[in-house]
Automatic annotation (TrEMBL):
Domain of life, per lineage: Bacteria
Protein name per its UniProtKB record: Cupin 2 domain-containing protein
Signal peptide: none
Start and end residues of each Cupin type-2 domain: 48-102
InterPro entries assigned: Cupin_2 (IPR013096), RmlC-like_jellyroll (IPR014710), RmlC_Cupin_sf (IPR011051)
Pfam families: Cupin_2
Ranges in coiled-coil conformation: none
Family matches, as CDD domains: cupin_reut_a1446 (cd06981)
Organism: Azomonas agilis
Amino acid sequence: MIANLLNSLPNTQDAERFEDILKVPGCRVERIVSFGQTSPADFWYDQSWDEWVLVLSGEALLQLEDRSEPVRLLAGDHLLIPARLRHRVAFTSPDEPTIWLALHIGETSSEATADVQT
């Protein structure tokens, strides 16, 4: 079946949406749609697997623990977040959907959700 990542967007004005596109052993592809959402102030993702993210539309700022300044991602920009690099979403576009494609590499089925540290 053919599908388009930029079509049939969920309503995200109240909450960010996560949708698995493909899930096979050791690899999960996810579409994330944000509309101004950010990570809570004391929330950090701390995953035991690598994550590659691509912004398809909109804009985002990612705060990475190993950098003093947030990383700005515009449409077409991508970034590999190595396993155990704590990170959080500091900003997503409030005026348009930010559509992400995330590739989770090395994730096991028992790690379906990220470890969270505060």
